[in-house]
Amino acid sequence: MHLEANFDGLVGPSHNYAGLSLGNLASQHNASVASNPKAAAKQGLDKMLALTELGMVQGVLAPQSRPDLTTLRQLGFTGSDAKVLEQAHRQAPQLLSACYSASSMWSANAATVSPSADSLDNKVHFTPANLVNKLHRAIEHPQTSRTLAAVFNDPHYFVHHDALPSHDSLGDEGAANHTRLCSSYGEQGLQLFVYGKSAINNGQVAPQRYPARQTLEASQAVARLHQLNPRHTLFIQQNPEVIDQGVFHNDVIAVGNHNMLFCHQQAFLNQPQALNDIRRAFGDAELHILEVATAEVSIEQAVKSYLFNTQILTLPSGEMALIAPTECLEQPQVAAYLATLTDRQQPIKQVHYFDVKQSMQNGGGPACLRLRVTLSAAELAAVNPHCLIDRAQHQRLSAWVDKHYRDRISFDDLRDVALLNESQQALDELTQLLHLGSIYPFQR
Prior knowledge:
alpha/beta; 3-stranded mixed beta sheet; single chain
């Protein structure tokens, strides 16, 4: 029996708003607003517990250690930790913000994962995303590799690849541009990779205002690394026009689960052909495609609400549920659409709303916060059990947040070496709670 587990990124103690992500409108609009790391982490943990109580297997991924002093020193800042922070704050504030970013909370960007049912060697494959398009994310993948290896640590079941070479031609944003459609989690599925541009084919259409972060070449490389069957692997292009309207990842405009694809009418380039290609590649089994018309929900409302950055879950009962941010209730078109969703001829029969506002203000909704991992019973038993959420672990982690996290951070706080010391102390304790070992450079 296979299931799909969700591993959410735990919001780090340095969670702040810096507007670092060009093309992510929420990130840009909330630059320099004071953040509340404690509330952010609690909101994430509460969503994790709620999904556990819906009957799902829910895990947690530890945050990155921030600020990234190694990168700051590589960039020429010298002296004690306090002096490095002070120099960076005065001379290069954007670099300091990048090295303080808590964006690893969005674990949909952590990696691309392929289950053993799809890989020729019958193992679960992980490739950390290189995230080269944004400096604050491009420095994440070495730590991401260590964290994933500590959670999925049995080589009999799990294969960990290095991130792709750090070059724009191989820009890889992880599971935010990848989904898997299947009739059953344990059977061969369709691996669907969505890319923004081809780095080699210069004649292909591409966005003009905002960057296309995922390349076709990166997606093809990940498929090779994961030993995927070409007959069950499909590469389609995201609509460049919606990238230029703030749809920086495919999971802002489309989400899939099981045999269900929920997408906007303008999600893909040449959408009628793209959907026909998906149907053909999926085969003769039943596939549900729910396409939201522009007349029902505009691109602007979809981006503001993150209607498609929701999670679709298959509950133990067999029904599907949509996990949506409360912002969906604040956009009139989206609220009206979701009010009638369960009455439509499609598998989603429940809608649950969650407050993840601290994440949403920085540009990430429920789907950004989670990495999906399809596992057999034996593979699940091989996962680090301390990284799975139940009520007791939720209480322990909530108490840890209360003990270590601030309830307000502004840019000027980033120069304070006390924040660095608090963060390292918190993460050192977290590695013990989650039995991760010494995964952080400061622990060595």
